[in-house]
Design goal:
Layout (H helix, E strand, L loop, with lengths): L5 H17 L3 H11 L5 H26 L4 H29 L3 H25 L10 H26 L3 H11 L5 H25 L5 H21 L5 H22 L6 H21 L2 H6 L4
Amino acid sequence: MMAIDPLVVLFGLGVGVLVGTTGMGGGSIMTPLLILVLGTQPVVAVGTDLAYAALTKTVGGWQHLRRGTVDVELCGWLAVGSLPGAVVGVWLVGRLEAALGPSFDTTLLAVLAGAILLTGVATLVRSLWPGSRNEVFQADVRRRGLRTVTVVFGFLVGLVLATTSAGSGALIALGLILVYQLTPRRVVGTDVAHAALLLWVAGAGHLATGNVDLPLAGTILLGSLPGVWLGARLSTRLPEHGLRPLLGVVLLAAGLGLSVKAGAPLPPAVMLGVPAAVGLAALLVIRARPRTALAIGRPS
């Protein structure tokens, strides 16, 4: 019989609520928690996170598809690049583990820290400068010109996700806003639906290579599935314009913590001071922003 760790269930619940309310933060938060708090081997933390998140995102993606908030064409072109990128990423992890031997964990921690720091910055950019509410402008002409860029971008996101389990939500969402100018609800819907496809491929690859702790993934799901459901219900009541900057600050702190674990000589003043300073700056930006701008950042 599988032993259930209440702490892991609590982690899953918290991350599930976060994903449900903001559409972001799953892998970027859970993987550092597994490594820093539970002491899970980095490659196993990455694989396990991808495996449990595949089911969680599938539930969310199906709901968005039924509501018509998924840009199916754009999701398909992203997948053309991201699915092969995920396969290459899983292969790359295996090659690096064989080549680096004992130093592999430290290397993966450093790469993971970089990916989470990048995700934190992307999350802050997305939340503080959410972009226009207009749908894709000049859709047919623009998309034909951007298909190659979309496929390449998808490939890079798939590669990053398969190697670190972080970044897919924030990076894809940022691209959907800045390049395609989708409305917030279509950003979230397209992002979640694409992530579901990508996570199944990446998770299956890590499962095949033995990097998934199935009992641990099952325990996380006990908390994450009700957490996503609860978060989705709370999303219409909580101030998203404050939640996403907070998530960005938490990601910066997690990235710095992983950097130290990987051997970076960061003093405590930097680990605490940088997230605090960024959080204060984000608060000032939010308070100075007109109410009409805040409304743009909310789902519609």
